[in-house]
Amino acid sequence: METQAPTASFTVIPNRRPATDEERWLAMEDPVFGKVFTDHMARATWREGVGWADRRIVPLAPIPLHPAAAVLHYAQQVFEGLKAYRWADGSIHLFRPEANAARLAASCRRMALPELAEEDFLAAVEGLVEVDQNWVPGTDGASLYLRPVVVATEASLLVQPAAEVDLLVTASPVGAYMGGDGEGVSIWVSRGYHRANAGGTGDAKTAGNYAASMLPQKEAKDHGCSQVLFLDAREDTYVEELGGMNLVAVRADGSVLTPRLTGTILPGVTRDSILTLLRDEGRAVEERDIALTELVEGMESGEIVELFACGTAAVVTPIARLVSDDLDVSVPARGEDDSPSVAETMRARLTDIQYGRAEDPHGWTREVVPAPEG
Length: 374
Prior knowledge:
By secondary structure, the chain is an alpha+beta fold.
């Protein structure tokens, strides 16, 4: 029997064979990122002339897809990524889901997909978290990763916007995710490969951008690096972003420098949150074009004392070294200074807000499940 979800518009169809407590415990013990999924998923369907309908939360299962589905041939697709956090009192909160809703809508516009209203986005992710709340980890650093995706499902080989589109939201328990140890990771600077062009889809969160990054990412791993840093496509001069994270540099005077959003860089929610917290500290934050030569010279001279990447999955990852065919430069050693780095401080400040350990001055957290009574 169908029961009404505690949200405004998504109907819940319970999974009749959910994971047992033991199965869930084993799956959540040490999950590989994006490999373990909860019992349910959220779904909705858009049809031309009808709009969004059939909003429901259903048992997790493969979806039937016609071999001529537009997404398989023309990559008309966008997605998002956000997390739900269990606080010490047992309550569960999302972090800035409204920002993810706005970015998904912007990505949909760019990819000629129907926009999903913020109300529907929130109802889908909140409803899924409420139904599968037992999958939200309670261990330090762990969370429930939510992946909304909008895909063109119409069976048509015409090169035109699809007349039928599906929203799917899955959830995955994830452990603490830190790219490399505290000393930082090595990053390969890609030459000849570019993530996005001006006027392209660089500021949309769409699958094609990530597919294009996989070959240079393999090149990075072949050179012993954890990730790839892309330069701009027009001049092959200015640093833009990593394969899935934004870049931040810290100067010796404490000021911060990061590439400006030009339309070729994904506007990260974590990026925006960290820049806000840095400004709250009184630090000067510059968002502008940054030449690779400026970055390298700054690292060599000691003018740039830190580099780090930021994104939803890893939050903050320190960068120790930039490598390419014609360069190999490291961030200056910190010497005997045992004070926390800016990267460490920002990671702690942001995660303390996300897990309810610190004040939330900007109202970023949104309660989904209240603390148990008693």
